[in-house]
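Pipeline run #58 for the internal structure catalog. This entry was flagged by the ingest filter as a single-chain record with no existing model, so it goes straight to prediction. Upstream metadata was stripped on purpose; only the residue string is passed forward. Reviewer on rotation: M.T. Logging verbosity set to normal.
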Amino acid sequence: MISQSKHLRRASTLLTLVLFAAPAFAANKDMIQLQTQIQQLQDAVARLQQSNDERMGVMKDLVQQSADTVNKMSANMDALQRNLQTQQEATGAKLDAVGGQVQALNDSLDEMKTRLARLEKLTQDIQNQQQSIGAGSPTPQVTAPPVSSVPDTTQPQTLPATPPTGRRGKPAAGSPMASMTPAAPLPDTTAPVSAAPAGAVDDMYKSALGDYMAAKYSLAAGEFSDVIRDYPDHALSGNAFYYLGEIDYRAAKYDEAVKDYDMVLDHFPASNKVPASRLHKGQALLALKQNDAAVRELRALIARYPASPEATLARSKLSGMGITVTARKTGGQ
């Protein structure tokens, strides 16, 4: 019996140990699995962090490359803009130079026309004098005796009906009429008389133009104003208004220059200064920042005078402003 009790106690003890040891073993196994999962999760997080770091590095490189590309493009755009600005300034300078050359040619042409007019007038005066001298009209008979002689009242003094004459109807040397012939020829009332005012306005305009060509702008402005004041309806007054506009433009008086050019356009539409007046009016309006009005003026110039040098300059000016113009052929010039 005692032996059996001992065996039972041992069995119960073993059973108790087994019963208590099983949960502990199960708990250790769960902890190990949990630790394993935690370790796996940490490894996954580490891999994810590494992947994110790698991707962020790639993104940083891409962003840096994009920034570098943008900076290069910006530098290229700045350089291109500077080149365009330089080209526009060079083109503007060339246009101004060409415009100055065209203007100088026009001024020289005006001066040549003035000189030709004076030469023509001088030639006409010489021809009139020659016609007056060589008209061949008989010299009136003079019965008065010479001053130094005393007339004989007893004998009538007669003179030949027609005294001998030399060249161009003058009395021959030694004839009685030679001492009584006036030195200057008699005026020919049938010859046309040149108009004095026309010669006066030509002289005034030539003097003003000469001072303008010599860069004496203040003096030239006063002389052109005198031409306009004394001969407001003369064609040369239109030229005078144009040169007043040029003087005002050179002095940066753009408002006054526009008014001077408008006087040419409104009151002297047949003047040869109309194309240049439209071109320079457009340039004055651009200087006044009135771009819309300037574009309209330049377009009107191109439409009205498409084949003129001024129209070519106007097209170049508009092209420099980014405006494309197609010349239209009109029934005018």
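catalog note: The chain has eight helices and no strands.
catalog note: The mean pLDDT is 76.
status: ready for reviewer M.T.
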